[in-house]
TrEMBL record:
Matches recorded under InterPro entries: Aldolase_TIM (IPR013785), Elp3/MiaA/NifB-like_rSAM (IPR006638), LIAS_N (IPR031691), Lipoyl_synth (IPR003698), rSAM (IPR007197), rSAM_sf (IPR058240)
Name of the gene: lipA
Annotated positions binding [4Fe-4S] cluster 1: 36, 41, 47, 275
Superkingdom to which the source organism belongs: Bacteria
Protein's cellular compartments: Cytoplasm
Gene3D superfamilies hit by this protein: Aldolase class I
PANTHER family documented for this protein: LIPOYL SYNTHASE, LIPOYL SYNTHASE, MITOCHONDRIAL
EC nos: 2.8.1.8
UniProt name for this protein: Lipoyl synthase
Domain Radical SAM core residues, every copy: 48-264
GO CC terms in record: cytoplasm
Keywords associated with the record: 4Fe-4S, Cytoplasm, Iron, Iron-sulfur, Metal-binding, S-adenosyl-L-methionine, Transferase
Single biological process term from Gene Ontology: protein lipoylation
Species assigned in the record: Candidatus Bodocaedibacter vickermanii
Pathway: Protein modification; protein lipoylation via endogenous pathway; protein N(6)-(lipoyl)lysine from octanoyl-[acyl-carrier-protein]: step 2/2
């Protein structure tokens, strides 16, 4: 297959802002991993220049080998018991209002790393009580009570990405199961309806529009509040090829469709990523819920 030419709307500028380098120094100095670096995110220059970073806990080596992901696969790192404190220290130095905590898959651990997520949330609450916390977790497949453990720590947002449409799971996300991921998102709402739930997919992997719309319906059935849709970018030649670069207008159409299906928030653009503008989006998400509740109350009375 001939490689597609990357369109001009997908290109980003190289980072030059001094705050970018200050953020990089804080992360490096505390020996933390970020998905911004490990997954080669195209928005790293913009986000780090605004002191926005997505901290990746539980090491930098994943137990799975998804066809879209640039994170290293192999024997995982040993669990670092001091990581929660170092994450909390980093946030204090960066002065973040909102933070996203994610991780590699840790199928080697009995709980998939769920308790470690909880400890990180607790450490942040103790040192930065005004910082809102978003977690982007793996699926915790075959890990009993793992989801309950993370929810009990009460993050403000629980994010788990479906990544793609069900038909492509076998080739794109072979270690995961589509309906298990949907059940995870639904379970979070069942346990604690006050926690915002969020999920995202990539387009350009070979899906069609009808399949994307079905994913929207599935997410709404799981009462997911916030959906993100972004362009898949092939990290290296060995990864899944890009099958299509939808025009920005196509993303606008997908956003309109998703909003019509009842999501409180939708972010859809070629450069949208799960954690892109997460802090600003959280504020909008909270405002959208308050407006929705007011409208529901007005209709009832």
């Amino acid at each position: 297959m001939e490689k597609l030419t990357k369109p001009n709307w997908i290109r980003v500028k190289a980072p030059v802002h001094k705050t970018y380098f200050e953020t990089k120094d804080v992360i490096k100095g505390l020996k933390l991993n970020t998905v911004c670096e490990e997954a080669a995110c195209p928005n790293i220059g913009e986000c780090w220049s605004k002191k926005h970073a997505t901290i990746m806990i539980l090491g930098s080596v994943c137990t799975r080998a998804c066809a879209f992901c640039n994170i290293a696969t192999g024997r995982p790192d040993q669990l670092d018991p001091h990581e929660p404190e170092r994450v909390a220290e980093a946030l204090g130095k960066l002065g973040l209002e909102h933070v996203v905590i994610t991780s590699v898959d840790r199928d080697d651990l009995d709980d998939g790393g769920a308790n470690h997520f909880a400890q990180v949330i607790l450490a942040i609450r103790q040192t930065s009580p005004n910082t809102t916390i978003e977690v982007l977790t793996p699926d915790f497949r075959r890990k009993a009570s793992a989801i309950e453990t993370v929810v009990a720590a009460r993050p403000d947002v629980y994010n788990h990405n479906l990544e793609t449409v069900p038909r492509l799971y076998q080739t794109v996300r072979p270690g995961a199961r589509y309906f298990h991921s949907l059940k995870l998102l639904s379970l979070v709402k069942e346990i604690d309806p006050s926690i915002f739930t969020k999920s995202g997919i990539m387009v350009g992997l070979g899906e069609d529009t009808k399949e994307v719309y079905q994913v929207m319906d599935d997410l709404r059935s799981a009462e997911v509040d916030f959906m993100t849709i972004g362009q898949y970018l092939q990290p290296t030649p060995k990864h899944h090829p890009v099958m299509d670069y939808p025009h920005p207008d196509a993303f606008k159409e997908m956003e309109q469709m998703a909003r019509g299906k009842g999501f409180l928030m939708v972010s859809a653009s070629p450069l949208t990523r799960s954690s892109y503008h997460a802090g600003d989006d959280f504020k909008k998400l909270r405002e959208a819920r308050e407006l929705h509740l007011k409208q529901a109350y007005a209709k009832a009375f």
